[in-house]
Structure formats: structure tokens, C-alpha cells
Amino acid sequence: MFDLGLMRERLLTVAAGRVYFRLSAGEIVRLQGDVKAYLSRGDRALSKVQLLALLEMHFYLCVLSGADKEALSVFHRCRDNLGVNSPKVQAMYATLLQSDGEDAVGYYTKLLQDEYEYSTDPASYVFLSKRLLAARGLEEGSPQMIEQVGALLERFPLDAELWWFMGDQYLCAQGQLSKAAYCFEQVLLSHALQLLRFCTARRGAVVHEQSGAPGELSRALEYALRSVELSETFLRGWSLVYTISKQMKGKDELVQLARSRLQSIEESFNERDSATARYILKAE
Description:
Blueprint: H1 4-17, H2 25-40, H3 48-65, H4 68-82, H5 87-99, H6 104-116, H7 122-136, H8 143-155, H9 160-172, H10 177-190, H11 192-210, H12 214-230, H13 235-245, H14 252-266, H15 271-282
Subcellular location: Endoplasmic reticulum membrane
Organism: Huiozyma naganishii (strain ATCC MYA-139 / BCRC 22969 / CBS 8797 / KCTC 17520 / NBRC 10181 / NCYC 3082 / Yp74L-3)
InterPro entries: EMC2-like
């Protein structure tokens, strides 16, 4: 049975993490089919923002799988909704240029110079600058790549994705481990919420392990619920909610909710999380 709610959450999670760029060819084709099938159902619970996020993912899946005509059709739909001046639409157009062997680098360069260099929208500038870096196809860890990422970081020192990317570049370059470590430290500093999420769930696990008394179980459940409130797709948190709720009376609805979340994670494209969720569900 095709569960629209579970499929919606699964696809939106994949789209938000942009993990589809790291999938194998077979997984890309399967995911493209899932997105197409889901969108054809006309889910009324899907907001316009969520729809556009899935359309963007669908576009890149079509490009990656070589479905050029379908990619062009999805591009036109996104352009009609977002307008030709949307950075996302401009990035899609550059992707079409690149897939046709045309000058995407020149397009990005002119676009940044003419429309974004003195813009009051720094988020769009850094977004398109990242795409320009990707389009240039520079060697990982090369002095040219490090120099260009460094120039972006000087202008946008709070961008965690740039710090992460720079750390990867230093890892690829020989003798740059201390610089790579510094870059990843900057990522941690800018992601305090994710650290709080992890620590909150871990605190719940510690309380759960310390005592099976009803009061302690309630406190452990409170920590676990707080962790999934911070991140609704957090596997560790839902595992704790599921495990603890089953030990408590009157928590049947919570058990069902946690089970459905774990089933959704089980269907994800993260193999490790999927295997972990499957193990937890089979252990009941």
C-alpha cells in the first residue's frame, strides 16, 4: 500500500539532505521513480514550498539519470512557479547548459558579476558561487580549489557548508590535517543545535540505563522526546522513544508514532540508519 504520509516525509528528508547527489546509478533511478509516482498522487498535505523542493530534487535526478526531456519539463514547471530570477532556477538552467556541453562557468561568472556582486542577498551569491566552483571541475585538494574556497570563506565566514568543504579540501591535500581539523571545528561551532540534539538524546539514554523506575523512565522519555523535537528524523531519538514507551503503561499512541517514524527511516537511502531501524523494529 502506498502511504502518502510516509512517502512524503521520506522524500522531503532526502531532498533536504541533498543525499541524491551521492547515490549509485540504480538508486538514482529508483528514487526518481518514487518521486514521480508520489507527485502523480496529488498529495493535498504537501505545501507549495515542499512541492518545489521535491521538483528541484526531481530535476537533478532526471539530469543524473539522463532523462533530458523530463528534466526540461520539470525545469519549466519550476521556472513558472519561481520566476526566471530565482537563484535555484538559474542554477538549474546552468545545469542544463553543462549537460549540453555549453559554457556553464561563463554563465555563472557573468550572472554573479552582473546581478549579485552588489546585491543585498548574500545567500543567493554564496549559493551560486558554490555552484560555480562545482562547474569548474577543479581537482579536489588542489591549490586552485583551496584558494577559491578560501576567497569565499573570507566573504562568508559563517557558512558551515563552506567550512566543511574546505576541510575536505585540506584532507585531500597532503600535510594539511591541522588545517582540516580547524575547518571542521568551525562546522561544530556553527551547528550547536545538532550537538544539543545528540546530547539530549544521550542524556535520555543514560537516565534510562540508570534505573527502570517509573519516574526515571518518564524523565528518560522526556529527554528522548526533546531530541526528536529538535530533529524529527533523528534515529537515535526515535529509537529511545520507541524502546522506553513500550516499557510504560498508557503509551500505546507514542509507541505507534515511534514505530511509524522508524519505518520511515528504514525506507531511507542511508543504509546504516535503515539497517539500525530495521533491527530495532524486529527486536519487538
